[in-house]
Design brief:
The structure holds two protein chains of two kinds. Chain A is built from five helices and four strands. Chain A is of the alpha+beta class. Chain A folds into two domains: about 60 residues; about 120 residues, no CATH class. Chain A has a four-stranded antiparallel beta sheet. Chain B is an all-alpha fold. In chain B, helix 2 runs antiparallel to helix 4 and helix 10 crosses helix 11. Classes of the chains: A alpha+beta, B mainly alpha.
Chain lengths: ~200, ~325
Amino acid sequence: MNLAKALVFLTFVALGLAAAYSIQRNPKTRYVVNLLIAYTIVVSFAVGFTQRENWPFSTWPFIAGRVARPATFPRIVAIDAEQNEHQIDYRAWEPLEFDELIAWKEQFFQQFDAAAKDRIAAYLLDHVDTARRQWSAGERRHYFDRFFGPLSAPLFLGHRAYWDAGVPDRAFSGLRFYNETWDVEERARDPSKIARRLVYEYRKP
Amino acid sequence: MTTAIARLQEIWLRAFFSPQSALNLAAARVIIAFHALWVLLSRDIPATSALPKEFWANIGSAERWRYLVVPGHPGVEYAVQWITVAALVCVILGLLPRLSCFVSGLLLYHLAGLETLYWTANPFQRGFTISVLALLTLSFSRCGDALRLGAPEVAPSPQYCWPLRLIQFHLANAYFLSGISKLLRVGISWLEPQNLREWFLLFSQQDQVIREGFMFNNLAPWFADHYILCAIAGFFGVVANICFIATPFSRSARRILVPDAAFFHVIVLFSMNIFWNNIIQLLIYVNWSWLVERLTGRIGLQRKLDVWAQRNS
């Protein structure tokens, strides 16, 4: 299926090259250009109306759903040697993008055996603790804003800059993965109406 | 029947082969390349290649082949990124514009895939979906006949029309299919004010997707509390988006729906904290040729007035 999707894209490229070549030979010819336009329109609409993704021909499902009632969202927190929990600033994951990482975790993490889970968690813990150490020393590494500074392209979703108020000063010694569940209407009436469930914990040996 | 076919042909010719200024197509070239460069250098996509092998464990070879991604070679990926950057700079400056568009379009296809492939082969909404299609479309056309050093002055031609319309179509499709997706996946009930209220509530309650700043995080609960605003948001989300498909082909649609879309993105940013970086690409709908003529005309008029004032002083 993935190779068929690649073929759809390659056909677009091939038709485009053929159109460019035909115009080069005879600027008044329109047959191949018409074919390219028709192909682009047909593929774009076919993808959209069948809702079958064929990137870069996309279905663009921008919040095309209903909010789950109740809704569940993951959260990763770090713990120190005294078991205090610390929020992890989304920039501490850089150069990984927070949303991509969380999406990967939600999709695949539970499929791994315990040893693999611990290897992954050890990698992630080392990653965020290194970032914490660098920030504490005033040597934060800039990955996403190294060229354009504050004018860098923001991520699609906003994220809270937890460490702007202060970087945790204790070394991280573990990670906890939670699932947080709430009903939007209930929580609108009472912000404390949120259930938290620990789904995985890793402690550095 | 023959009349209907003739009419369709006429509409097709008018839509894609009307005389168009070379400047408008060249402006699209610069806008698309500038946007792609901005997004590319605001990420660190090659670093993804260095993720531990567990991250790639569930990705099949077909998916890797589709984007030519071979994990574990960040050095190669950084080289690819810098070649892409160089190509995009060439696109902006008009140096070998068609070749540069083609190279950057293909390499961005690969880099966009690399960005998300470890969990999805569908990297939409990251910023390169329209860029890839647009850069390739530009490479098939005479996109370098203006806005480059030594560009000759050329008359408006249908050669500049169809590529510009196709690029505008790619962008319009994002809005159109966004509206269609809501109807196909949820149905007409997506427009219900209660659905929009729940979305606004969710984005205001989920603290992990909150942006820092006084202007954020107040609008969503306020919208959620106003039935009529939720109803308007639902209308925008489907009807205005679907109508956007008219923008490549109708000047009136462009005049109304393009500013409307920009306004929509600002509201979405402040209410849901969602930033759609393609908002910059809306500039491809501007008639730059008309604008330049207008500005230079005014400047010319001002010069004439200055000369007249000097003579009479």
